[in-house]
TrEMBL record:
<feature type="transmembrane region" description="Helical">
    <location>
        <begin position="352"/>
        <end position="370"/>
    </location>
</feature>
<keyword id="KW-0812">Transmembrane</keyword>
<keyword id="KW-1133">Transmembrane helix</keyword>
<protein>
    <submittedName>
        <fullName>DUF4153 domain-containing protein</fullName>
    </submittedName>
</protein>
<feature type="transmembrane region" description="Helical">
    <location>
        <begin position="65"/>
        <end position="85"/>
    </location>
</feature>
<feature type="transmembrane region" description="Helical">
    <location>
        <begin position="285"/>
        <end position="305"/>
    </location>
</feature>
<feature type="transmembrane region" description="Helical">
    <location>
        <begin position="186"/>
        <end position="213"/>
    </location>
</feature>
<feature type="transmembrane region" description="Helical">
    <location>
        <begin position="317"/>
        <end position="340"/>
    </location>
</feature>
<keyword id="KW-0472">Membrane</keyword>
<feature type="transmembrane region" description="Helical">
    <location>
        <begin position="252"/>
        <end position="273"/>
    </location>
</feature>
<feature type="transmembrane region" description="Helical">
    <location>
        <begin position="117"/>
        <end position="134"/>
    </location>
</feature>
<feature type="transmembrane region" description="Helical">
    <location>
        <begin position="91"/>
        <end position="110"/>
    </location>
</feature>
<feature type="transmembrane region" description="Helical">
    <location>
        <begin position="391"/>
        <end position="411"/>
    </location>
</feature>
<feature type="transmembrane region" description="Helical">
    <location>
        <begin position="146"/>
        <end position="165"/>
    </location>
</feature>
<feature type="transmembrane region" description="Helical">
    <location>
        <begin position="219"/>
        <end position="240"/>
    </location>
</feature>
Length: 414
């Protein structure tokens, strides 16, 4: 590196390229050479650039802190409604868990983006419709359509929050991709907050136990129940105001886990052949198979969202392409198993919901894989892959709306 720097001192563009190719090596080599170069203006410029010691001031607006505190208190109070109003906990939490998180995240982005009254009314109307509808469904814990509605309502609320995130401009593909990136960052930040909160909880309970006080019930009833709904909101405020906290961690996670998941998937598919298990006759195995599929799809989305904002090498693109191809294979197996089960035992709400989701994911995966091929052949950029992911998201939102609101009616609440 030292030789390359010395030979390109009169070529600013080449120096910039060397720096971007390997910033840490460039900085180390240049600082070693600097005593020999301090009589040149270009060397002084690079020295100041590489060694500028900026003060990192991490601050959050006071009004945002007040907003987080008020929202956390409201969310915690809502979480305690079963105790306050003597509501059955299973009835309340299975139907309303999403409403302890997403309305408050939406409120944050409504405030942050200064949305119009019309946009606020749309978001509030969609969430209000979901709140009323899910709580009016018949109380039948054995109802498949009830379970499906509760699960898909969470995705519906997540997508509606995305509408608030984009500032009401749902057609902006770049903003949609930014929403996926935000979700990846939020998962990282929320995990760190939960780990920290868990350590604090263990220490607090342990210390009080040492002096003869058992505060576990009180702590979980009044501290944890208020703290858990606040975690996504606090994580959101941190990622939006101090992006430096996770902007380097998330891409690293994407780079590490993509090849690892690819290896795991290949090993898993190979193990299926010798295990004697198959998703055609084993319902629980099919459920796990589909959960795996959704998880890998989420990783692909997250990885593309993170790489779309930075330069990626061909190896990383190839890993993403192979991961999408293997996921298409997994999806094909799951889809054929669902079709087999429908042909053998007929249509049920669960089978129809999974069939629709798998068909949508298969089409999307094939679309993503074709775009990644173009990236590998340099006929497209990774940003275009990100846009292809973003453009498809409303279709998922539409399907979750169908399952949430229409399936109970179509299948007679069974």
């Amino acid at each position: 590196m030292k030789t390359e720097i010395l030979s390109n001192l009169d070529n600013p563009q080449q120096l910039e390229k060397l720096y971007r190719d390997n910033k840490s090596a460039f900085r180390q080599a240049f600082n070693a050479l600097y005593p020999q170069l301090n009589d040149t203006r270009l060397a002084e410029f690079w020295h100041q650039r590489l060694n500028f010691d900026r003060d990192e001031v991490f601050s959050i607006n006071r009004s945002e802190l007040i907003f987080v505190l008020v929202a956390a208190l409201i969310a915690g109070t809502c979480a305690k409604l079963p105790q306050i109003l003597s509501i059955d906990e299973e009835f309340f939490y299975t139907r309303n868990l999403g409403f302890l998180v997403f309305p408050f995240l939406s409120a944050y982005f409504i405030r942050k983006n200064n949305l119009t009254a019309k946009t606020i009314a749309i978001i509030a109307g969609l969430m209000g419709m979901g709140l009323v509808y899910i709580n009016l469904l018949p109380d039948n814990p054995k109802s498949d359509t009830l379970v499906l509605s509760c699960i898909h309502l969470g995705v519906f609320l997540w997508a509606t929050t995305g509408f608030a995130f984009t500032g009401g401009n749902a057609r902006d593909l770049k903003q949609r991709l930014g929403y996926l990136r935000y979700n990846g960052d939020l998962v990282v930040m929320s995990t760190l907050l939960l780990i920290s909160g868990g350590i604090l909880t263990a220490i607090t309970i342990g210390l009080f136990n040492l002096i003869g006080y058992d505060i576990r019930e009180y702590y979980f009833q009044y501290i944890v129940i208020f703290g858990l709904p606040a975690v996504p909101l606090v994580g959101t405020v941190l990622t939006q105001n101090i992006p430096e906290l996770v902007q380097k961690v998330s891409p690293i996670i994407a780079r590490i886990f993509s090849p690892l998941v690819l290896i795991m998937l290949l090993a898993y598919l190979g193990a299926i052949v010798f295990s004697g298990k198959d998703p055609y006759n084993d319902r629980e195995f099919l459920i796990i198979f589909n959960a795996l599929l959704v998880g890998v799809m989420a990783l692909i989305f997250f990885s593309v969202a993170e790489r779309a904002k930075a330069t990626s090498n061909r190896f990383e693109i190839m890993v993403l392409f192979l991961l999408s191809v293997v996921t298409i294979l997994v999806n094909g197996i799951a889809l054929s198993a669902i079709v087999f089960r429908i042909s053998e035992w007929g249509i049920t709400p669960n089978r129809m919901a999974v069939l629709g989701a798998n068909v949508l994911m298969l089409i999307h995966l094939m679309f993503i894989a074709s775009k990644l091929v173009k990236v590998l052949t340099r006929d497209a950029s990774l940003t275009q892959v990100g846009k292809s992911i973003s453009a498809y998201l409303p279709i998922y939102w539409g399907w979750t709306a169908v399952v949430t609101f229409l399936f109970p009616l179509l299948f007679g609440f069974e």
